[in-house]
From TrEMBL:
Keywords: Disulfide bond. It catalyses: a 1,2-diacyl-sn-glycero-3-phosphate(in) = a 1,2-diacyl-sn-glycero-3-phosphate(out). This is TRIA1 inhibitor. GO terms for biological process: phospholipid translocation. Belongs to the TRIAP1/MDM35 family. One of its GO terms (cellular component) is cytosol. One of its GO terms (molecular function) is phosphatidic acid transfer activity. It comes from the Eukaryota. It comes from Vireo altiloquus.
Length: 76
């Protein structure tokens, strides 16, 4: 799957590969202390944020990292 920004697609693929490798080779074997993909994720995240701004995609009200504090599961 491509990224929201064409310029971010290669970064997305690199991050996906890194994450999948870490998940299979480390996390599933009980080793979750290391975060080898963190810097790559940050670069990808910045690229996506830039693409969203350039494409003028409205993001108000969207939750990117899980539910907002204070909301209940039943609230819409």
């Amino acid at each position: 799957m491509n990224s929201v920004g064409e310029a971010c697609t290669e970064l997305k693929r690199e991050y996906d590969q890194c994450f999948n490798r870490w998940f299979a080779e480390k996390f599933l074997k009980g080793d979750s202390a290391e975060d080898p993909c963190g810097q790559l994720f940050k670069r990808y995240q910045l690229c996506v944020q830039k693409a969203i701004k350039e494409k003028d995609i409205p993001i108000e009200g969207l939750e990117f990292m899980g539910p907002s504090k204070g909301k209940t599961e039943n609230s819409s």
